[in-house]
Amino acid sequence: GEPRKFDPKFRGPIHNRRCTDIICCVIFIVVILGYIALGVVAWVHGDPRKVIYPTDSYGQFCGQKNTLNKNKTILFYFNILKCASPVVLINLQCPTTQLCVSKCPDRFATYIDVQASYRYRPDQWNYFRQFCKPGFNNPRKSVAQVLRDEDCPSMIIPSRPFLKRCFPDFSTKNGVLTVANQTTFKDGRGKTRNVTDLREAANGINNVLDARSVGMKIFEDYAISWYWILIGLFIAMMLSLLFLVLLRFTAGVLFWIFIFGVIGIIGYGIWHCYWEYDHLKGIPGSDLTVYDIGFQTDFKVYLQLRQTWLAFMIILCGVEVIIILMLIFLRNRIRIAIALLKEGSRAIGYIMSTLFYPIVTFLLIAICISYWAVTAVFLATSGEPVYKVMANQTLCKYANLTCDPETFNTTNVTKLCPGAQCTFAFYGGESLYHKYIFIFQLANAFVFLWLVNFAIALGQCTLAGAFASYYWAYRKPADIPLWPLFSSFGRAIRYHTGSLAFGALILAIVQLIRVILEYLDHKLKGTQNSFTRFLLCCLKCCFWCLEKFLKFINRNAYIMIAIYGKNFCTSAREAFFLLMRNVVRVAVLDKVTDFLLFLGKILVAGGVGVLAFFFFTQRIPVFAQEVPMLNYYWVPLLTVIIGSYLVAHGFFSVYAMCVDTLFLCFCEDLERNDGSTAKPYFMSASLHRILGKKKLSPKKA
Questions:
Q1: DSSP letter at 81?
Q2: Are 613 and 677 in a shared domain?
Q3: Are 403 and 422 in contact (CB under 8 A)?
Q4: Number of domains present in the structure of the chain
Q5: What is its main location (predicted)?
């Protein structure tokens, strides 16, 4: 295309700017005000206690103050056999009467037996009666009528509270499932049934209960070791800072140390896996497979298997080979990337405040997430109790219709369907507000995505402006303006809120479509045919690619906005064509830089992880006495490793933005100038020497 007209007096980020994309800025502000209003409305109507506490068949919370349930905090199911799984119990309503009780039953009993013996065993009647409807005390009423009207449960079984609900107290004895050491029970309707029926009714609850005990142990581990976790994260922060500062002087040497360090760590991992694999040879039980032993909450069991160590060894060998092959084929490109990294390190050395800018982005995103989550909970709980007819007879035509508990007994339903009841079903409502709650939830999610993308965009534009002011300083550091980061942040907020909001809006729309596609995929999983599945898969793939492409375009558009102060569309177009004219450099430098920075994150996380592993497994003699006694040493270990990676990612993301900005500025510099005294290059001599060879004229660039 035609060469663009440049201002010969151009000297870095333009200070004399105008506001861009004003319409989008106004819309953005209006949407934020609307979002605040939505939060207020949800807060007025919502009640999160509806999520925290279970609700009985009368629409009252268990443990609700100033009601009969004040001291009854646990939900009891009259006939748990009617419930298919705990998921039904927790999220939906079971087709059986639910009652709030102060404690779960601790024995087997049936209504038939208790009623037959109530005269000479009144204590049994009084115990059973607390699981009947409040106020029921008529042992003379026929069993058939009691069970039809669901005045009392037909049976009670030993239970324990879980998620504030009574579940059968399962245990295994010699591999056989039991409840209170019994394998059978009377169902109160004349049948003796196996405990496995209960197991199916509360499917998977044993695993959930095991998970609860694991959760408690993990919580204890965090309570004991949080101090050491923070020390580990502080070490990761210092290591990340140290690496970034050292890159300024020894980028080449450090990165080769990075690469060989990662290869060495993986090599040690391969050797350790082989040693464990060889060490377990001949030990009884070590040749079992993971499939043989199934799911175990004690993870040490898996480490006794040779197969586990063999799998670890194969995975690590694969990673090692991939890294070595990439190094062989990319060795020359790595040299090119190192020059940019040195320049980036020098830029960060002059503007150290940029390293701590991710904290601002993190706080903004944390505020967005908190506001979204609170609003979502209040919206979800802002309904009124909805009651539906629950009938024992399957042919009742009124079953599942909405009803009013106050007038229910005066209607025809009780005559046509004996034993039918008007019980609490869920929280909802018929008003205009309640009808559109799903739309409000979608709006909540959309504005949340928009705000998060805006916070990220603001960070990228701010950092780009700061680093561009470094690049376009002819004499470095003398010409770098004072407070470049604060100046750049002020310019972005004052002039370019609209442009940043526009870029964030496009990304938020694509992300919302992706969320809806995931939701549809999840909902249609069991019913969809192969064509629907194929279509959804294609759509998900296309929108994933589109999101990645938009993120790349937006990032470079924000750099151009930071430099020239033009609107979003113009900046995106100019950035795109500039990158297309330098497409080979983009592919090589961008990806190699990303790869090297990723290796840096792995080395920081791996180094701190190895240190934490030796510390928590008491292999450092100096600190052996300081190590807290843990249930699972992998809890703080994994936390330290993941936390270290995130800390390194925070610092290195600034660095990646710096390299991207310098690269775009460098391409502009090559097209704008030719190295003559009239049009001198702004790049440093070392950068020009490595990247600018044989590319002195704009035509050849």
A1: G
A2: yes
A3: yes
A4: 3
A5: membrane
Taking the model in full, what pTM does it have? 0.68
Provide the token pair at 214.
């694991």
Dmax (CA) of the chain: 113
Integer Cα distance of 173 and 196 in angstroms: 13
Is residue 519 within 8 Å of 566, Cβ to Cβ? no
Together in a domain, 355 and 319: no
Token output for 692? 């600018």
* Boundary residue ending a domain (190, 212, 243): 190
Q: For residues 481 and 487, is the Cβ–Cβ distance under 8 A?
A: yes
pLDDT score at 430: 64
Instruction: Return d(Cα 158, Cα 208) in angstroms, integer.
Output: 18
Residues 380-430: tens digit of each pLDDT: 777 677 777 777 655 677 777 788 877 887 787 877 777 777 877 766 666
Same domain for 487 and 369, yes or no, is: yes
What is the C-alpha separation between 441 and 449, in angstroms, rounded?
A: 12
State both tokens at 279: 């060490």
* Phi, psi dihedral angles at 628 (to 5 degrees): -70, 150
- Label the pairing between strands 98-101 and 384-390: unpaired
Residue 235 belongs to some domain of the structure = yes
How far is 37 from 151, CA to CA, in rounded Å? 46
Task: Report pLDDT digits (tens) over 267-311.
Answer: 999 998 898 888 887 787 777 776 777 666 667 777 777 888 888
Kindly report, residue by residue over 63-92, the tens digit of the pLDDT.
Answer: 877 777 888 888 898 877 766 544 343 434
Last residue of a domain, one of 506, 540, 566: 566
Q: What domain range is 173 assigned to?
A: 74-190
Q: Phi, psi (5° rounding) for residue 376? A: -60, -40
Q: How far is CA 129 from CA 98, 120, 126, 187, 433, in A?
A: 15, 16, 5, 17, 42
Question: Residue 101: beta bridge partners?
Answer: 74
- Which residues, 6 or more positions from 199, have their beta carbon under 8 angstroms from its beta carbon? 168, 170, 177, 206
